[in-house]
Amino acid sequence: MNNKLVINFKITNWCDLHCAHCCERSHKHNKPNFMSLEKLDKYVSESITMDIRPDQLLTIGGGEALAPYMLNNPTYIPNVLNTVYSAGYIPTLKTNGTWGNNNTLRKIILSDIAKKAYQYDKLVTLDISVDEFHNNQTGVIKIINDIVRNPGLSFAIRFCLVGFNTTASKAALNDLQQQLQNTGLSIEQTFAGDWIIEIPNSGDGLYVYNDYGAPIYNLGRAKQTKTFTSTKNPNGNDGYNCLQIDNQDCAILNYTYREPIKNRPLNLVLQSLMTHTTNQR
Ligand code: SF4
């Protein structure tokens, strides 16, 4: 196998939003069906013998990765972080950021994830969607302000803003930048298009990655014939193979090939999935 692996755990298909392009068909009327912590633990343990990307990043997504907080299950994410950190990984939580509008929830979530980052002495990253489909800017502005203005959070939490390679996504990002500046934050744009947000009264800055390279591969819900996603990329993304483990015990390679895990070790499931890509080359 040539490509190293990116692993993503889809812990739920519940989401408080209902975006038209959603590849996962997530919705707040879906049953939450969180991946059990035992299953997550088993899969994470098995994955550490696999050929993971060198920076050891592992993503937790959905649906909305922080949904457990909205559904009265506040211990779920801290337990997920215990599992991921204990295995030596650095977690990224994929979110739409709407919880930023709820002052109580925002405080709890940011404090919980920062505490885990300190406990394991490794960063935690929030991947926040900012694009033409998510009407979430007020929540995102509150999250970013809390992180940047609180040293306890800014030492522990990184964030990455994620959108599509479209004019509308870039306009949403520019609009967010303007609105953040209106809250008094100073933002410098790097040559690569990322941001450095000045941390007030510290002389320091917080680096924010802006990931706007992906095309919109399909129309999500609008495309009735799709089964789970229609991305055709047998070589993986950015030189990595992406293995998603979902909350229905299925493994999905590069958003294209899907197999039930059926109690097999993950490396055997991956080997089986990889035969599809080998056959295509
Ligand atoms: S926020 Fe993300 S998971 Fe939720 S509906 Fe939109 S695209 Fe899907």
Task: Note down, in words, how this protein is organized.
The protein is an alpha/beta fold. The chain has one domain (4-280): TIM Barrel (Alpha-Beta Barrel). The chain contains eight helices and eleven strands. It has an eleven-stranded mixed sheet, covered by helices on one side. Bound molecules: iron/sulfur cluster (SF4). Iron/sulfur cluster binds at residues 15, 17-19, 22, 24, 26, 62-64, 96, 129, 134.
Count of DSSP H/I helices: 8
- Please write the string of helix (H) and strand (E) elements: EHEHHEHEHHEHEEEEEEH
**Biggest β-sheet strands, sense, barrel:** 11 strands, mixed
**Count of all domains:** 1
- Unreliable sequence segments: 222-236
- Strand proportion: 15-25%
Shape: globular
Q: Residue share in helices?
A: 25-40%
Radius of gyration: 18 Å
The count of β-strands is 11
Structural class: alpha/beta
Q: Which class in CATH terms?
A: Alpha Beta
CATH topology tier name: TIM Barrel
- How is the largest sheet built, in terms of strand order? 6-7-8-5-4-3-2-1-9-10-11
Residue-averaged pLDDT: 88
Q: Judging by the overall fold, what is the CATH architecture?
A: Alpha-Beta Barrel
Distance between the termini: 13 Å
What small ligands are held by the chains?
iron/sulfur cluster
